[in-house]
């Protein structure tokens, strides 16, 4: 197949692009910023410019593709109102599906987030089969955006577009710009992580996630969700693993209420006192506290996917990547 990867210069997109080629497919690498294409210089691909805010550019970029994997779905960054966040997410998502409409695509893979899944009603790890019956009551912007995107993807599938949802769990690996999950590694290595909020997570190596998403594209069924998983860990266990790799002291747990107060103060300073972008953001709190264990047996059963790289090795590779990029300022203990 000729597979187009939206967001091919991003962390997950880089791994998806590489596994697209390893699986024997032709790669069309789509990115918004041409200056980032040098990161794909070692890949045999056709690079095309595409901007999610420009439907025509997306349509042109998708011409001739047999399938597309969307690795660049919007997520909240600097603090804005929920209304603004949802409006931006809806506009960009609808632009993507408008561009897909009328193309001869055999598969459209939306790369989602596990936070869009409700906690399993039986207390077991979520297998991705359950959905919120209505909009979640929690007004966290990250949750609301990811729920809306997941809902729209499944709606498009119900309308006949061959949309499949692939959900990688919390991802660590190379090519991380350092502004999402990788920030835990950078901040701990540099001794600037203020702490963590207790919770449950599933953690996967980005390379395994990329390989799993290619399998979703190849054999996933439209309208279905596939969880691309690694290992189930508590946040404390994850922080301990990062501390071991970076040689840093293990951070302390911060009560959820205290973390929310710190976040609110940092947001106030950002909005009204020209302060820096909050380190303790509502999205980061949601990622830590709202997570749950995941069950990826469906992807194993239907796609043959299994993780190959341990969490410890994934963290080590992430740390070495950041060190090679000059983001680690303190010399670690090897």
């Amino acid at each position: 197949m000729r597979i187009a990867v939206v967001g091919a210069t991003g962390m997950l997109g880089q791994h998806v692009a590489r596994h697209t080629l390893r699986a024997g497919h032709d790669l069309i690498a789509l990115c918004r910023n041409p200056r980032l294409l040098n990161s794909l210089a070692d890949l045999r691909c056709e690079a095309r410019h595409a901007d999610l805010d420009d439907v025509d550019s997306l349509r042109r970029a998708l011409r001739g593709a047999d399938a597309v994997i969307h690795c660049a779905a919007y997520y909240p960054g600097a603090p804005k109102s929920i209304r603004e966040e949802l409006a931006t997410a809806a506009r960009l998502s609808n632009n993507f599906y408008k561009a897909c409409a009328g193309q001869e695509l055999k598969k459209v893979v939306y790369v989602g987030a596990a936070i869009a899944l409700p906690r399993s009603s039986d207390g077991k790890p979520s297998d991705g089969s359950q959905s919120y019956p209505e909009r979640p009551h929690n007004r966290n912007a990250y949750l609301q955006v990811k729920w809306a995107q997941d809902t729209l993807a499944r709606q498009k599938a119900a309308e006949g577009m061959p949309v499949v949802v692939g959900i990688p769990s919390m991802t660590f690996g190379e090519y991380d710009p350092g502004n999402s999950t990788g920030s835990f590694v950078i901040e701990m290595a540099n001794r600037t992580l203020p702490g963590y909020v207790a919770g449950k997570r599933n953690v996967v190596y980005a390379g395994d996630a990329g390989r799993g998403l290619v399998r979703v594209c190849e054999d996933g069924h439209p309208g279905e969700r596939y969880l691309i998983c690694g290992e189930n860990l508590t946040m404390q266990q994850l922080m301990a693993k990062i501390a071991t790799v970076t040689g840093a002291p293990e951070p302390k747990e911060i009560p959820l209420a205290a973390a929310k107060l710190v976040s609110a103060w940092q947001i106030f300073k950002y909005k009204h006192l020209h302060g820096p972008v909050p380190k303790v953001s509502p999205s980061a709190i949601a990622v830590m506290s709202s997570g749950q264990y995941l069950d990826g047996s469906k992807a194993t059963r239907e796609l043959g996917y299994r993780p190959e790289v341990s969490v410890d090795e994934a963290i080590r590779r992430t740390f070495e990547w950041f060190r090679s990029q000059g983001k680690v300022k303190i010399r670690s203990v090897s």
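The mean pLDDT is 92. DSSP finds eleven helices and ten strands in the chain.
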